[in-house]
Design goal:
The protein has seven helices and no strands. It is mostly helical.
Length: 128
């Protein structure tokens, strides 16, 4: 029997599983949280990280969107261009929209965010 030559590399399931786990951890997400964000059962997601299965294309697209990487970066065809500075995917997505707001509205958001951060710090100090 003659081997068939494909014009594209077959996805290495083990390498994909390791990359998926590393990207998820870099964004400080649990398996359960990432599964929730992409709308799949956490057990199915766990199988992907163990290298037992690879998600279908539509799910790969959702994963790439949530992890803020390209499909090439997710599948290992390209190196990840940048590390996330904001780990919450919803907050990260809002950053672009916030950046487009007028200066006065951005200032109001800065004041609000600053007060939330300060309150969280005070609560941490008070808890210790």
């Amino acid at each position: 029997m003659r081997a068939i030559s494909l014009p594209f590399p077959i996805l290495d399931m083990v390498a994909f599983a390791e990359r998926l786990k590393a990207l998820r951890e870099a964004r400080k997400l649990t398996q359960a949280r990432l599964a929730e964000l992409i709308g799949v059962n956490p057990r199915a997601y766990n199988r992907w990280e163990r290298g037992n299965f690879v998600p279908q294309l539509d799910t790969l697209i959702k994963i790439a969107d949530v992890l803020n990487v390209t499909l090439d970066e997710l599948t290992g065809r390209a190196e990840v261009a940048h590390a996330p500075t904001v780990h919450n995917p919803k907050l990260y997505a809002l950053l672009e929209e916030v950046d487009a707001l007028p200066d006065a509205e951005q200032q109001a958001l800065i004041i609000l965010m600053d007060s939330l951060v300060k309150r969280a710090k005070i609560n941490r100090v008070m808890a210790t």
